[in-house]
Amino acid sequence: MILVLVDLIPVLGSRQKTCQTYYLDCLLIGYTNRWMMTDPNAKKLFWFLFAGSRGGMNRISIIELLIEQPYNINQLSDIIKIDYKAIQHHMHVLEKNNLVTKEGEKYGILYFISNYLEVNMGAFREVVDKIHQSKKTK
């Protein structure tokens, strides 16, 4: 086994490494930290936000784009082809539920997926796959 030592300050303070990479590094050196443990209630939250509301599919689209790279609200609106105000509402809901974070000010605000979502990505993928499967069977 290869041991990987991690400098915590750059990892937590920048976007150079994802939380998943950090988690893998910590597993390799046998280090555990409470903030990176998966949340047993994450699936319930994901079901509520993505399947239990009319805007769920738009929120899934937003999250899937943010997984690839950060965007501002205007860029998301152009890509997804829905109203700026609707994207603004979805971003507020996602931020309130700790699935996205924002950096910057006013029109320069960029949105990123949160560490919480990165850690619970398996649960997110599982819920989204089940939602897509149920849409196909209808």
From TrEMBL:
Signal peptide start and end residues: none
Recorded coiled-coil stretches: none
SUPFAM superfamilies: Winged helix' DNA-binding domain (SSF46785)
Pfam (any one): HTH_5
An MF annotation (GO) of this entry: DNA-binding transcription factor activity
Chain ranges of the HTH arsR-type domain: 58-102
Record's protein name: Bacterial regulatory protein, arsR family (Modular protein)
Organism from which the protein derives: Candidatus Nitrosocosmicus franklandianus
